Amino acid sequence: MPITHGFAQANGIRMHYAEAGTGPLVLLLHGFPELWHAWRHQLAPLAAAGCRAVAPDLRGYGQTECPEPLEAYDIFQLAGDLVGLVHALCESRAIVVGHDWGAWIAAHLALLRPDIFRGLVLLSVPYVPRRTVNQTQWEQQTFPGQVFYQAGLRSPMADQYLKHDVRASLLRGLYSLSAEAGPEERFRPARAPGPPSGAPPARGPSWIAEGDIDYLAGEFQRTGFTGGLNCYRNMDRNWALTPFLDGARIHQPSLFVAGEQDPVLEFLQPEFAALQQNMPNLTKKVLLPATGHWTQQERPGEVNRLLLEFLAGL
């Protein structure tokens, strides 16, 4: 099934997306630092199963526009982009599938527009209900005396640091968060204050081809990382903007899939444990063995099977 590319005007910006198939719309949302390309193994199988699979570059990524104001990356703008994209595609309803940051956005789409998003799949990042404290306060309480990795990504120097050697930055992230990383190379969510220790080796995991890395590196070399980093920089603002979401549950039929060796689940263990409570119509909660954070890229066959099984149930 061929993958085609298009552009749409949505929420005042020009969005790029990849698409395959016809049928019920399945919207695929990538994470950081990724692009539509993170779903390259899912587009054709979803199309073959009778779905219209659409994977956009999110705001600030790839060929989608990158507005300059920091406030342009809060949850309402990110959600507005995807609602606008659904309408621009001449659709009224969709299943939303998100990985990493895309999972966080997808959960909010389900909360904010249940009339549009009738089913939800979260990969790697469980639904995190609004906490009693903001992100910065949570980091300080959870990792006292340490620096949480998101604090580094929020810093003004993060853009320059990551873009100094784009390919190495991408390789370190892809490898250290994957199941292939050894104990000393594995991503750690928090570290001691002060300059970071020596960077891990920039090597690619076996599940991503050189050509795929070339594509990612070329896009981020062109755009930089600011768009994605601005999402982290809006976390405290998002918390301040959403007191109405206190205690909100997700009621759509849903699926959660993650890797047993995903470091993200280490600091989101309470939310993982509470998924059935916070998502009462969760149909399945799956941990894939020998799998790290890049779920649908590390284990495309298993993820595709679970996705198609979930969609068939709808």
TrEMBL record:
Protein name in the entry: Alpha/beta hydrolase
Gene3D superfamilies linked: alpha/beta hydrolase (3.40.50.1820)
Pfam families: Abhydrolase_1
UniProt entry keywords in alphabetical sequence: Hydrolase
Limits of the AB hydrolase-1 domain: 24-299
GO molecular function: hydrolase activity
